[in-house]
Design goal:
FAD/NAD(P)-binding domain, 25% helix, alpha/beta, seven-stranded mixed β-sheet, 27% strand, oxidoreductase activity, 19 strands
Length: 305
């Protein structure tokens, strides 16, 4: 039996494993090999790694963990978790089972992209979600925002303020979108939808309803995020509704509503960010260790809180 099974081997999960490995605790990191930012050519805003490919950073993380003999990495998908503290069982795709005293969920979320041809292929390169993560690289270019959700207004106003003076919001948008306020701030509102995207190294061509086209540096959109089908959803951890989807409710030590289950990273925050994932991973890893040493020291989060 492992002391901790970490489900998800990206920034949060590997950071948590590092804390536990340095305490000489037995840890198994189970990773499906599909980090959320895998399509991005560079991870920006992370000090010391700004612009480095996410895969390169994660490879370095895994190399660091190799120095700790109590930490093991296993490729695979966790399909279910059952049991309780000191007796959890993780069932993997293929039927193998792993026993652990504690569970640390760090598998992130899945982005649900709109079914527009070319969007998935350009996701993370010319179809983007976060000005902080990607805005500087397209600064000054004409930018587009697709009005899928009220968050689109927020994106458009941010981009217009500090990244480009040529920002166009495409689509009629959700009910209640204040087009007049956007236009007063300098955002051009175009009711035409985007039917297809063709991206290249210099930008993206948008194919609009009615036959028009537009050339932009990037198209920003806010996809829905989902925990559907994840171990977190099947466990029944308490969750909250964020701007883009549900995320797990956690306490100050990363504890969930279930005893012995902790969570870190994108699945436990309404806003994804590498820096947040690193901090969450360190906190939840330390909390897992504390709960092993002092049962009851980290109580589960009360659902009614």
């Amino acid at each position: 039996m492992f002391d901790v099974a970490v489900i998800g081997g990206s920034f949060a999960g590997l950071t948590a494993a590092l804390q536990l490995g340095r305490a000489s605790r037995s840890v198994l990191v189970i990773d499906a090999g599909a980090p959320r930012n895998r399509t991005s050519p560079g991870a920006h805003g992370a000090a010391g790694w700004d612009g480095r490919p996410p895969a390169e950073i994660l490879a370095r993380f895994r190399a660091d963990l190799a120095a700790y003999p109590t930490v093991a990495l296993r490729a695979g998908t966790a399909e279910d978790v059952s049991g309780g503290p000191d007796g959890f069982e993780v069932r993997l795709a293929g039927g193998d089972r792993v026993a652990a005293r504690r569970i640390l969920l760090a598998h992130g979320q899945r982005d649900v992209l709109p079914p527009i041809p070319g969007v998935a292929e350009a996701w993370g390169r010319r179809v983007l979600h976060c000005p902080y993560c990607h805005g500087y690289e397209v600064k000054g270019a004409p930018l587009a925002v697709l009005a899928l959700h009220p968050t689109a207004a927020h994106q458009a106003l941010m981009l217009r303020a500090d990244w480009s003076d040529r920002v166009t919001l495409y689509g009629a948008g959700p009910e209640g979108l204040d087009i007049a306020a956007l236009e007063a701030a300098g955002v051009l509102a175009d009711p035409r939808g985007v039917e297809a995207v063709r991206a290249d190294d210099a930008g993206a061509d948008l194919f609009l309803t009615g036959g028009g086209t537009a050339r932009v540096g990037a198209l920003f959109l806010a996809p829905r995020a989902t925990l559907e089908g994840s171990p977190a959803a099947r466990l029944g951890c308490a969750a909250d509704e964020g701007p883009m989807g549900r995320f797990l409710r956690v306490g100050p030590m990363g504890q969930t509503s279930l005893p012995g289950v902790f969570a870190a990273g994108d699945l436990a925050r309404p806003m994804p960010n590498i820096n947040f994932a690193l901090a969450d991973g360190a906190q939840s890893g330390v909390a897992c260790h504390a709960s092993l040493l002092f049962p009851g020291f980290v109580p589960p989060l009360e659902i009614a809180a």
